[in-house]
Each structure stands twice: as structure tokens, then as C-alpha cells.
Amino acid sequence: AAAEATVLAPRMKTRAAWSASAPRWTPDIADAALGVVVHHTATTNSYACSQVPAIMRSIQRSHMGGNGWNDIGYNYLIDRCGVIWEGRAGGLTKAVIGAHASGFNTSTVGVSLIGTFASVRPTAAARAALQRLIAWRMDVAHIAPTGKMALTARTSDKFALGSRVVARAVSGHRDLFPSACPGAVTYRDLNAFARAAWPLGGIKVANVTRGFVLADPATGAVGSVTMRAVANQRDGQLRIRLQRRSDGAVLHDVSLVGNVIATTWRPAEGAAPIPVWDLRMRIDATSATGQVARPVDESLGYWNAAPGFEVATPPAASVHPGGVDTSNDQLRLSYTLQQPARVGAWFYDPAAGTWVATSVSSAQQDPTGGIPRELVISVPDELPDGTWELRVGNEDDRAPARSMRRYAVTVAREA
Prior knowledge:
Number of strands: 23
Structural class: mainly beta
Largest sheet: 6 strands, mixed
Oligomer: single chain
């Protein structure tokens, strides 16, 4: 239908279809997906479509048993018959952190073609499926596949540890790791795959940027907001709206026909100040034929800290329950909150750069004034023994971690 949202998910087989084993622990989720890394499995090309589930299980056993990983490393796999398979568990549209590109698993989507493509081209069905998958998955992330992604190297396999690496939004494994993967033939086609995926499926909104200047850093009052986005069609209508989160009031509404929209909003002189955490941005696009793009709808962000979030009483530094069962073990802290916010708690591994477990993901909390409120943090069963960084703060500002309060917590199931 003309009004249908763009780029429907391609047909794919779920993990149940190949009898996948359950992951060892809850999958880690990154804050966003920034691009795709294409692989090949380096296995035989001579297989029947009916053999693919067994091949998938074999790959998973190798990844989990031989490599000691949590699950199969790839987020998606594509066979020679053009069938797309769900790989790593955790959610088809979530930024599940895989184990496919050492040092660059966070914020990348791992897609592997089943077979070896050093000198043989993937089948036409496999190539078409890869393009459909890239088109849909990058639209979910609002990323133009023909663009770039900026990543941080978390290992030193190819780049200096901690360095900023700019790669194609559709990269090959060899771009990020000293490897021949995804095979010379597939590697040569990556730019063509990205170009084919960008218009595929209809109108899209991508590469969204936003920024703001504060009029008053003490209160978070906004002085100006800039917003920009691109679309993949030149004759569609793009629209940006800036709204208040608290009451939905529209502060700024701009639209144009074209594929690039950029606008700046400033509050009227003498208007009541609006804190940045009360702003929400929505970007829509409609094609000339009436097709509606997947919208961007997200909070603008927080400027420096959560809205008056302060920890009055820190949590304990260790958990020594003296037993194996930690389901009832809890950390407690008290906090005050001066503006509405969602308060959460997470266990983080600074060395790996991953969120290990989520303990609290609460609904929006009302201000407490000067009276502290208690936050009860249960130690998740899946959290391994060791020393972790407990981060507590505003859930909506978890990505840049600017509002987080951080505490080292040692978990030992047997004292």
C-alpha cells in the first residue's frame, strides 16, 4: 500500500528453524548499530538448501565450544539459496553485540554468507538477499549504507587500541581485521551492494544529526537546537518537528521537498526557558507516491548530568552472599531527583566496553525534592563473579554515559 512504512523486513528463518542452542547468557546490546560487516563462513559451497540448518548448528558449536563464545558470532547468515537466517540471539532489530569482528563487534551488524568466496561469486539469490537485508537493517538504524561509520578499536589486531576508525557503513571483515574474509570476490562487490541497498524498498530517512547550545548550563535551558537528516529520494517531502516531551507541544515544524533537510530553532525572546531533557525530535519523510518512511522519534539528549540526579548514599562495594544462589542479593542506594527522569542501574565491563547486565530499567520517576528515595538493585543471576562497574543514572542518557554515577562492585558468590 502507498501509505505503508518503507522497507519491510525481508523474510527470514528464525533460530527455531535451525534448532539453535540457547546462548550461555543474556546477549549484550549496544546503544546503536552504525553499519554492517560482511563475512563468509569459509565453508563449502556445495550444499543443498535442506542441509543449511545442520551447517548452522555446526558453526554455532564451533563458535561456542571451540571459541568459547556466548552464541554463534554472526547476527544473520545467508545461504546459497537466498534464505536469510537469524543468527545470534537477542532481537532482530536490536543492536545485539556479536562476535564476528574482533575489536569492532560493538555497534556493527555481522552478516555472513555461507560458503567460501575467494574466487567464486555468491549466487544471484544470495546477493539479492544480502542487498535486501542491508536495505532493511540499515533503515531500522537510520544509516545510509553508502556512507561511513566511526568506530573505536577495542583490540589492537589491526588498529591501535582505543583509536578512532572510520570505515564504510557496509564494510568487509578485512577492513577491520587482518583477514581475507569475506573473500576477494565478495569484497569487490561491497560498494555495489551498498549502492543497490540505498534506494531499495522505498523512501528512507538516515544519517540524522542534532546539536544544541545551552542558554543556562546551571538549569539546562536551551538557547538553540540544530537538526539535520538526509533521505534517499529527491522528490519526497522531509519534515522535522521539535516537541516538548512533557506535553507534546510543537515548538518548531519545518518541511521541504528534497533529500536534505537542516534547521535551527531558537526560543522566542522572553519565552519561558525549556530544559534540554524536555525536548524530543521527530523526522518524517513521504515519497511523491505517498509512501511513508520509518520515522525518527527520539529525545534530544541531556546536556551534562541527569536532571538533578544525585546519589545520597552510595551502594556497597561488594556482594559476598556466601552461596551459589544470588537471586535475592541486592545492592541499595538512596538518591534525589529534581526533574522527571527514568533511573536505571547497569553492570558494565570497562575492559570490553560492554553492558554486562541490566538490573533496573524503571518507568519515569517523579522528582523527590530534598527527600531521598531508595533504589534497590538486584544482582542478576547471569552476572559472572568478578569486579564490575555499576552505573546508575538517567536511562535516557545511557549512551554517552554523561549522567552516570559509577561504582566498582565486586561480586563473589562464595565468600
